[in-house]
Amino acid sequence: MTDERDSVRWGILATGGIAASFTADLVDMPDAEVVAVASRTEASAKTFAERFGIPRAYGDWASLAEDTDVDIVYVATPHAAHRTAAGLCLEAGRHVLCEKAFTLNVREAEELVALAKEHDRFLMEAMWMYCNPLVRRLKALVDDGVVGEVRTVQADFGISGPFPPSHRLRDPAQGGGALLDLGVYPVSFAQLLLGEPSDVVAKAVLSDEGVDLQTGALLTWESGALASVHCSINGGTPVSASITGSEGRIDLPDGFFFPEHFVLHRDGREPETFSADPASGPRDSLKHEAAEAMRALRAGETESPLVPLDGSLAVMRTLDAIRDRIGVRYPGEAA
Questions:
Q1: Catalytic residues, which ones?
Q2: How high is the pLDDT of residue 5?
Q3: What is the distance between the alpha carbons of residues 96 and 164, in angstroms, rounded to a whole number?
Q4: DSSP readout, 74-98?
Q5: In the sheet where 199-206 sits, what is the strand order?
Q6: Which of 20, 281, 298, 309 lies 20 to 30 Å from 164, alpha-carbon distance?
Q7: C-alpha distances in angstroms, 85 versus 62, 82, 253?
Q8: What's the pTM value of the predicted model, to 2 decimals?
Q9: Number of alpha carbons in the 13 Å side-chain half-sphere of residue 251
Q10: In sequence order, what are the beta bridge partners of 158?
Q11: Mean local confidence (pLDDT), 1-12
Q12: Following CA atoms 31, 126, 257, 196 in sequence, which dihedral angle do they give, to the nearest 10 degrees?
């Protein structure tokens, strides 16, 4: 798909905070080149381009999608626009790394996966947690049975706000609410370890606009495992996680999805701490997902084994199930 001797040429679609963070990491990678950026306005695209030294700035998404000098597009719009933006790029022949939540719902996610297959393009959800080296180490340990059979997973992600009704997190048209912005992390963490749950129970506190301010869900598996996940945009939480198995427990402190360390507890043994390698860069670095996307492109792969499309679809099914239980619908969705 790309010559492994050349830099992978990136386009950035959207110019918000996460786009800036990703691009800042990308321009420091020797095998990446950011060649174009697009926004809904030319002024915003030009400002972003000047900030990062990007040669081309477009005031519409289609021009970026049709730029044949771009190998892969990073889609960083709010998730309500992911289906449109990523779909435009895939149809034009670009590979895509799309921010999470992958889409608004599983129907849209399935449409993107179908488009990627139809056009033989690489597609990956930008679930940076799955690409984080220390999270990968944790998963390998759990898969190797270090805590025995997994019994429970607990994870939370809450921020204090408050957010006014005009904020995108309160706007149904932009897929507002805690679940898709924050809850996707605890859900994805649980499913990284246990796969797709067999049953979902959920409760929420909804805003006047009809989005979730706070959601708690209990996910269960046929193995007997269960996960308790929580998200909130009206109260800060520890943003921590734990995994309890038949032979031990792993605790991840604040910022479980980009951890500095985790602690393994096993009966009869001293706690063992596993720390991030300083050589991997800052804990909030997004370079690992970019590196994985570029590795896959050079290998001729159309999806990443670290963030497989079936896994992204499974997470979207769980998020849909939670929204069904709490009664959150976005404009244009069936009742």
A1: 100
A2: 45
A3: 33
A4: EE-S-GGGHHHHHHHHHHTT-EEEE
A5: 199-206, 212-220, 226-232, 150-158, 241-245, 248-252, 261-265, 272-275
A6: 20
A7: 9, 5, 35
A8: 0.96
A9: 9
A10: 232
A11: 74
A12: -140
